[in-house]
User: Fold this.
Amino acid sequence: MEVIGIDEIALKKGHRDFVVVISAYINETLHVIDLLGDRTKASVQEFFLSIPKRLRRTVQSVCSDLYQGFIGAAKAVFGKRVRICADRFHVATRKRGQAG
Assistant:
């Protein structure tokens, strides 16, 4: 489990009820590995800590949007040994917003 992806989706368009989707590439196939009921740093951190240590050691990157709760949870659990990267959709969206 080298790369973990994390993103949230609104249950209904325009609402603030979120489900957090956590996915990972395992043997070159994308798998949804969990759904979280909220997007708090504490919930995401708890999920990361629930991953068995032998699997946590295989994680090389965590990719997410630019939400600080996700980034903070990844840094708290994995430290500096794991690369934190922003997904390209959110980077492009932010870049377009700055251009206008």
Remarks:
- The mean pLDDT is 83.
- Strands lie at 3-10, 18-26, 29-36, 61-64, 83-86.
- The first strand starts at residue 3 and ends at 10.
- The two ends are 39 Å apart (CA to CA).
